[in-house]
Amino acid sequence: MTVNKPKLHSSGSTRGIAKPKQQNSWVPTILIGIAIGYLALIQYIPAINVFIQAFRKGVGPFFANLTHPAFLHAAWLTLILALIAVPLNTVFGLCAAWAIARHKFPGRAIVLSIIDLPFSISPVVAGLMIVLLYGRNGWFGPFLEAHDIKIIFAFPGMVLATAFVSMPFVAREVIPVLEEFGSDQEEAAKTLGAKDWQIFWRVTLPSIRWGLLYGLILTNARAMGEFGAVSVVSGNIADKTQSLPLFVEDAYKQYETEAAFSAAVLLALLAVVTLILKEILERKTRIKDVE
After folding, report:
1. Residues 116-168: pLDDT tens digits?
2. 200 and 120 Cβ atoms separated by less than 8 Å
3. Cα 4 from chain centroid?
């Protein structure tokens, strides 16, 4: 005996089922093309042109420009500025991050806003603020002049400007790590009799090391590449108060284009190294989060 199976009509079987909408395949392609084109105009083409101009006359003239006395002085001064500003902002950033992440106090939001101040104002305005404070006619100008202390158009003013613009990075990278890490292990170590410095070196520092290194890299990159604030307070005096970014501008204005582009290549390579270290730390951080 055979049983006749009911036939399923295609019209009835698909009734009430919504068909998936077909997305236009050209939309992602256009968006990616716009993004690549924008990056090419803003970053890639100018960066490639810097290298082309620097090596236009060959490798020999390029290295000859890097041995020029004015360039060596500017590079050395930039290195000293970074060696001073980075440790200062590291100590400040760790103290600020500890106070903000471990304590609840009135005005905490205001302190965070003050730390972020260099992100929200122009570096030129920051340099002008330093001039209005420490210049000859500034708030502390008469006192400094009476004691023969020169801040503006001198090395101390450049240190202040560099430290100001690179201030937030360590604190901003360490605060989220401290908040995520919590204080349970620190309190347990204190219960076992560990001193504060032992708790910091053996418990806190290992837990924030990647965030701290990330902040250090960004701080160093900003300190060595700062132009606006340092330009205002330094006076851009060759062989005296001229950092490497200021040397690039001054050499270009003096029609020494090869020297300017050679120094720009060095700054660009510094940026590349910063990006590589940044990517390495981000990967290590992601691996640590997975573990």
Report:
1. 999 889 999 999 999 999 998 889 989 998 898 999 999 999 999 999 999 99
2. no
3. 76
- The full DSSP string for the chain is ---PPPPPPHHHHTTTPPPPPPPPTHHHHHHHHHHHHHHIIIIIHHHHHHHHHHTTT-HHHHHHHHT-HHHHHHHHHHHHHHHHHHHHHHHHHHHHHHHHHH---TTHHHHHHHHTHHHHS-HHHHHHHHHHHHSTTSSSHHHHHHTT---TTSHHHHHHHHHHHTSHHHHHHHHHHHHHH-SHHHHHHHHTT--HHHHIIIIIHHHHHHHHHHHHHHHHHHHHH--HHHHHHH---TTTS--HHHHHHHHHHTT-HHHHHHHHHHHHHHHHHHHHHHHHHHHHHHHHHH-
Determine contact, residues 221/274, Cβ cutoff 8 Å.
yes
CA–CA gap between residue 102 and residue 111 (Å, rounded): 14
- Distances, alpha carbon 168 to alpha carbons 103, 105, 111, in Å: 19, 20, 11
pLDDT at 247: 94
Cα–Cα dist 242/158, whole Å: 9
Q: What confidence score (pLDDT) does residue 1 get?
A: 47
Residues found in the chain:
291
**Residue pair 266/220 in contact by the 8 Å Cβ criterion:** no
**AA identity, residue 17:** I
Phi, psi of 240 (to 5 degrees): -135, -65
Give every CB contact of residue 54 below 8 A, 6+ residues apart in sequence: 62, 258, 261, 262, 264, 265
What's the pLDDT score for residue 273?
86
Q: Which of 63, 24, 114 is nearest to 259 (CA)?
A: 63
Both tokens of residue 213? 């290194």
Which stretches of the chain score pLDDT less than 50? 1, 3, 8, 10-14
